[in-house]
Fold:
Amino acid sequence: MNREPTRRDISLLLALLPLLMMVALVVVGHMLYDIDLRFILLVSAVISGITAYISGVSVKQMFEAYSATIKEAFPIILILIAIGGIVGSWMYSGTVPYLIYYGLKYLNHDFVLVSAFLVTAMVSTFTGTSWGSAATAGVAFMGIGASMGVPLPMVAGAALSGAFFGDKISPVSDTTNLCALSSGVTVYQHIRGMLPNVLIAGFLAAIGFVLLGMFYTGTPSDITAVPEIIDNLDEIYNLNIAMLLPAAVVFIGGYKGYHPVILMICSSLIAVLIGALSNGFAFNDGAQAIISGFNLEMIENKGVELNQIPEILKELLDDRGGFEGMMKGAVLYCILAIAFGSFMEVSGAFNKLMKLLLSVVKSTFGLIVSAFIAGGLLNGISGNGAFSIITTGQLFKPHFKKKSIPSTVLARSMENSMTLLESLLPWHVTAIYMAATLGVAALDYIPFSLFNISGIILFFILSWLGVKRSWKR
Structure:
């Protein structure tokens, strides 16, 4: 018979060990020696599992917890896979190239950054997904920025800022709804509670992107490359207004509240039809674009010579999207991060760390800060936003009620610790996804994530002012 280990209360040292080891591995292994983050997450999950076993958790219990968390995260995994299909099919249909074409033709160089922020914010507000808006409008602006010589980390920071701005105020955002549900308020009460924070941070970010855009100008070689890129896009695609139909399906359907996976699949299929009928691409290549991604070999039947296409355009269009790319990228990161978080949870390490945090909190402001730290810690460790929101709500809701702090403040604390912070943690699934999608390393785009950074700072300032004005100390 297999002997089950004796379950006992995990020590503080064992509770901290997996977290400290993961941070050390990310800093030393990834940042200094460029070791694949997927390998680091795998090693971290093993360490987390070992500490759980030492604390008396059986292997069976660990994998039961892992399976339960995977089940909870499965809708998010499906959305990730569907986004891969969107990117590949929209490249095939010409939807993203259409936006790049007219952006290059009519957009002033000085306003590329603020336009990237505003457009991705609009897309994210309608669709409720920061990931989807970054993969569509964000990718389009990366192409525009690259063609105009705008530093790509700045463009990525602007697109990412807009994506999270829209996600926070969208009534169809899953995280916004989950934060409202976990804190006991309606989604519109939650959005109203966030508006001062979001609007001021958005205004500051927009001003910042205007100033950055005016300060950084493209080189003469960048400017002369723009007409060539426009001509190439015109040659590859039969650019017309129908190419916006796949985007319209997602935006209008998202506004109406339809499930994002269904909308993305429908949009991808419509994009394949448009690419085949409008551009003259092979229909089987459209199917391939959804499954494996779009590549430039698909345009050879149009008589376009690949060696005549500028390198900037090749980098933008070639090997983009597809279910397969997402499976070995963001989905794999999710699976590994969830293993780490599940083993930490089932071992009792999460509860141990949260109890320690709450034991030192005395003031009202301290409790609000603790909710932010706890949400960020849970999200950073587990890589699972839904888990961090639900757990933080369960832990802090009674304490907020006891101190008569409005539930909207708890919802705002959880939202900020997840949506604003996660893209600034290089090992987090969201940061990895954004880096892969936008083609810029997390450490490079982080300084230009103006909305996220200013939003976090404003959260602390506005919370402190709120405590001073009306809430009990």
